Amino acid sequence: MSIRTFSQTESDLAFQWVDKYFKLVELIIEISDNDGQDISTSEPSFEKEVRYQELRVWFLAHQDKFIPIWSEFWRDKNTLRDSVDKTDGQEYFENPFLMLYKPDNLYQLVYRLGIIENFDTWELTEQSTGIIKDIKVEFSLEVLQFIHFVGEFAGD
Prior knowledge:
By secondary structure, the protein is mostly helical. It is built from six helices and no strands. Helix 1 (about 10-30) crosses helix 2 (about 45-75). The radius of gyration is 17 Å and the shape is elongated.
């Protein structure tokens, strides 16, 4: 299998995507971090919702050009591709970032991630710490490996 060289445009997009991804992770941490206290954080502010919407719109506008770049890196990362449910899971396998920007608003995002249990109250679940860790550590390590990969195969 040969790996192609990424153009300057593709490299630039990959670096922008990663920058926006970390801004989105930062936002998720802001709305779900209770600084180790036993109290739930408050609902996201209007400003945080606006930040989410701006990031979401950017991701949606650039995903068609980004996914082929990501696929070069991601295709060999997980051998479970054949076992993924073709209707629901496949789109998230091909674009795992989608789970972070597909929801229409922050409430839907944190609910779908399992950070809150329902829309009526902003109470963090017991699993929220592990979910946040998975996003900010585990998947972020994949993202850092990806950007190193793109940099390694970027054209001059």
